[in-house]
Design goal:
Elements: H1 2-58, H2 64-140, E1 146-151, E2 155-160, E3 165-171, E4 188-195, H3 204-219, H4 223-226, H5 233-260, E5 266-272, E6 275-282, E7 287-294, E8 306-312, H6 317-324, H7 333-345
Antiparallel strand pairs: 1-2, 2-3, 3-4, 5-6, 6-7, 7-8
Helix pairs in contact: 1-2, 3-5, 6-7
């Protein structure tokens, strides 16, 4: 919008300058035409004077009227001849002044445009940095986990988590005057969630995520009561998306620990229903123990209940509790728990 008004102001300024220069050019042209007229007058007088001189030399111009006429013409010619350089000088000064003012105006305009260009380049760089920051923020906190797979007059179907969860919304009869069936007051007959995950082929972390999502869905009771009309559907999609997003991150954390757990003295990661068993072992700390975390759909907004089974060493529930109490809940809570145990209890020199 700013660049639009900047261009508009430039166009107006150029139009005003064009009008001014047109007037100056017209004035100079009028002066030139007057000069041409005077030159023609002078040429006529000169020719007449020459004819008078020729008559004098021939002796045919001795009458008083002729003498008087010749005298007047000579006087006029002399007066014009005296004023002619002055008028030419004034015209030259005028034209020079016009050109000087035009040049100075163009120089000022060019300087202003260069400064404005530099300012716009700086602003563009700032806007690019801001856009980059906003994109990163949106990508980090984008909780829109649903996609529309079907929308008809009778129902709408939404998918979550790579088509592993499906929500079918059945609509009531359309409201009078609602040609497109999108009136917010249109009734919803039923909402049905269905799991499409093949648990026999899916990895344990995906099965855990699926169980936690449906744990949340079942804990909400009757969804049709929470979403009686089409206007309430967006809130339902948002609530489910939040849970799906958090559980999806949890699944990614479990997969990370399964792959890179050795860096944290983590020998084994095992999923047990909605629980997660972590087996730690360290020769440096001479300790081996199994930590079981009870996960829920509220992860990672609440602390995780846990139990400890000691195999070797003195690391037990009291030591684990002291470490976990210093780990704040939030993003990547599980990874931070494992990292904190590794650093504080298993003899990591860092």
């Amino acid at each position: 919008m700013k660049s639009y008004f900047t261009k508009e102001s430039k166009i107006l300024a150029h139009n005003e300058k064009e009008t001014l220069y047109s007037k100056l050019l017209q004035s100079a042209q009028e002066q030139y035409e007057k000069l041409q007229s005077r030159m023609e007058t002078v040429e006529g007088l000169i020719k007449e004077a020459e004819s008078c001189l020729a008559a004098l030399e021939a002796g045919v111009c001795f009458q008083t009227a002729d003498w008087y006429r010749c005298g007047m013409m000579c006087s006029a010619l002399k007066a014009l001849n005296n004023r002619w350089p002055l008028r030419l000088e004034r015209v030259g000064v005028f034209v020079t002044r016009v050109l000087h003012l035009t040049w100075a105006s163009l120089c000022r305009e060019l300087s202003g445009l260069e400064a404005e260009n530099e300012q716009m380049l700086v602003e563009m760089e700032q806007l690019k940095e801001k856009e980059k920051s906003c994109r990163e923020f949106v990508e980090t906190y984008d909780f829109t986990e649903w996609e529309i797979t079907e929308w008809s007059e009778q129902q709408a179907v939404f998918s979550f988590l790579y088509d592993a969860v499906e929500l079918t919304v059945v609509f009531g009869p359309p409201v009078d005057g609602d040609d497109f069936g999108e009136d917010p007051s249109r009734m919803i007959v039923s909402l049905n969630f269905e799991s499409l995950l093949d648990e026999e082929k899916a990895p344990p972390s995906s099965c855990l995520v699926q169980r936690l999502i449906f744990q949340f869905i079942e804990s909400q009771g009757c969804w049709q009561e929470k979403c009686p009309t089409l206007g309430n559907l967006s809130q339902v999609l948002h609530e489910v998306s939040l849970v799906v997003s958090r559980c999806k991150v949890l699944g990614e954390e479990i997969e990370f620990l399964e792959r890179w757990g050795g860096k944290f003295n983590l020998l084994k990661t095992e999923v047990d229903d909605t629980g997660l068993k972590l087996l730690f072992s360290s020769s440096t700390a001479f300790a081996k123990f199994e930590l079981t975390l009870a996960l829920s759909a509220n992860y990672p907004s609440t602390s995780l209940p846990f139990t400890v089974r000691k195999h070797i060493g003195n690391v037990g529930e009291e030591e684990i509790s002291a470490v976990l109490s210093r780990v704040p809940v939030g993003y990547h809570y599980l990874r931070r728990i494992v990292s904190s145990i590794h650093q504080n209890l298993l003899g990591d020199p860092r």
